[in-house]
User: Fold this.
Amino acid sequence: MAFNPLKEKGMALEKQLRNWHQIVAKPYKKQQVDCYTRTRQILMNGIEVEAWGFKHQFNRFMSNIDSEDKINISRLGRIENQQQMTCNWLCPEDQSVLETTLGYEQVAVDLTAWLSQNEPDKYVKETFDFGLLEDFDHLYRYSQYAYMREGIEPNDIVQGKTDVIIGRPTQHHHNCNGLRLRNHYDKTTASPQTKVNILTVLSGEQQTHNFYAEHGFMYGDHILRETYAEIKDVEEEHVTMYESLIDPNETMLEKLLLHEFTEVCNYYTCLEDEVDDEIKKIWEIFLDIEIGHLQIVSDMFKKYEKRAPEEVIGSEIIIPCRFKSQKTYVQKILEKEVDKRLAPNGKYYNTTDEIPDDWASYKVQEKAFEISAPSENCINIIGFYHDRDMVEADESLKNKEVMLLKKGLQKTAVAKNTVLPDKLENMIKKHEQRKKMKEKII
Ligand SMILES: [Fe+2]
Ligand SMILES: [Fe+2]
Ligand SMILES: [Fe+2]
Ligand SMILES: [Fe+2]
Assistant:
């Protein structure tokens, strides 16, 4: 029988306050941490930021609930805030902003790939696959800088579990926000899995946006700062896209219930998968806390809506964040869908060959790249210093890089400083020649 959190008691609210020593736990060591411990830490921070923020929105907008319930919501908000600190501050001081950034994009790639393969709604799955290829390209762009500035090779962070190579070029991720809006699911028929999947990826994307907003300026290199600004803008679109999948007819209490359930499901998965004994203890306590939250909001839901929580969240746990290598799946989507774009009707997709002349995203893209695209400049610069771009991928995929670029580029609204396929091919050839020369000398 699958685990049913509604049948558990969880930790009572009065026991959930922790002291500073417990709140600020010992950080992991960046040289020793398993890359998927880091992705869990990054994701759970995002989940807690959303859980905390939503409670404030709830208390700001909900007028017709009893004051004792409002008080309890505000108490829950403090607990979420404390959990957020614990999760985020597991990150060690010597992990640079760029290293953490590679961790964020690894979360986006491997999480979205997992969700996509475990998503019962075909339309939602297609949206996950679309977003996936954009974060995949972000990982590649940031990897250039991590190497140039700090000598970090992508595998120092992603540990060979995620390929780092060109995806749908970042310069083409900028759209009219209206086109990002998707059809929402129907709350009466959507499976709890769909609801949890969307809220999980949305929380991750929102926090990725916030991280770039708060850290991108910490580098003096102007093109790197511009690259953070450019990719942050895409994460804004990702938040717009994923949140639009949620049924806006859900009541605030329904949403509150879903938030707590999503936290329960994510901690449950973290606890099942964690390899770091110290961090596993944190997931165990936090799962207990979240089951306690779920009990409190389930009681409120029953009191005000006079229906069973099972109608919204079902009666069994969902596994939303099983982190593992997704190379095979991502490669398949990459080769098939790198040329996909948002269709003008805002609900579906087409390919670069099918974009109409009056596509609303052209205006956004042409304005953004009036001077140049930062995400292309980073490839130009690394080519200058190191002959070619930094790529870490399986050989079979590496050999397809020029073909992927050819297929992924649009015909119109291409930035003037774009590294075109011929140039990339020459960069790769030059690199091979230099490698042979070096071997002779040695
Ligand atoms: Fe929480
Ligand atoms: Fe991203
Ligand atoms: Fe993203
Ligand atoms: Fe919670």
